[in-house]
Amino acid sequence: WDHFRLLAREGVVGTAFPKRFGGTDARQALRIRIIEELGRVCSTSASIITGTDLSSRAIIAGASEELQEQVVPGLCSGELQSAFALTEPEAGSDVRGLKTVFRRTKSGYGITGRKKFITRATTADWFVVVGRAEEDASVFLAALVKRDAPGFTISPEVGKLGWFGVPISSLELKDAQVPLSHRLGQEGEGFSLAQDALLRARIGHAAMALGRAIGAVE
């Protein structure tokens, strides 16, 4: 996490964010070069930058201006972290296999479901959760959930054989209450927001793998 704070302090994390929130509006091509160079010497540091794309893209693309002003400056500076809660026990990057349900309430949504392999869940302050509408399974939704939301539980960190700077955990949502203002995009746009985030992250992971290979040869 010293590396995370260093990358945030030097503005590398901020390359994922708009200038109006303290970022640099960097082109994706520049971020790919940064990830590749980091990957040559430290997979974890490269993953921090790739993970920022994955976990924050839907917030930048889908959050209301008010919600962005509340959250994005802290993400840009590294004071806050976010996580992308997509993968489930029976669904991974195949978004159409999700079983998490959004139930409409008077003030927003009650979300019920399980997520697994969620990167940085133990350190994240906010979670981008993707699921389906209760009344119509063909309608996908995404919402920004705070870590202390009622009905939201984060498991202890799951052990791995390596890559200790990329902690993963499982999540459980039992009618977790989320205000309507925390929905990302419109109802039905959850699928496209998830795919947009995954596309950017996949490019980043390719760059990370290439950087690792270069570092290994060197």
What does this structure look like?
With 218 residues, the chain is α/β, with parallel strands linked by helices. The protein has helices at 2-9, 28-41, 43-62, 65-77, 190-217, and strands spanning 82-85, 101-104, 108-119, 126-133, 140-146, 152-154, 168-179. Strands 1, 2, 3, 4, 5, 6 and 7 form a 7-stranded mixed beta sheet that branches. Strand 4 (126-133) and strand 5 form a beta hairpin. The chain is globular and about 55 Å long. The two termini are 26 Å apart. The mean pLDDT is 93.
Q: What level of helicity do the residues show?
A: 25-40%
Which spans have pLDDT < 50 for at least 5 consecutive residues?
Answer: none
Question: Which structural class do the helices and strands define?
Answer: alpha/beta
Q: H/E order of the elements? A: HHHHEEEEEEEH
Task: Determine the N-to-C terminus distance.
Answer: 26 Å
Average per-residue pLDDT, rounded, comes to 93
**Radius of gyration, rounded?**
17 Å
**Fraction in beta strands:** 15-25%
Q: Which overall shape is indicated by the principal axes computed on the Cα atoms?
A: globular
Total helical elements: 5
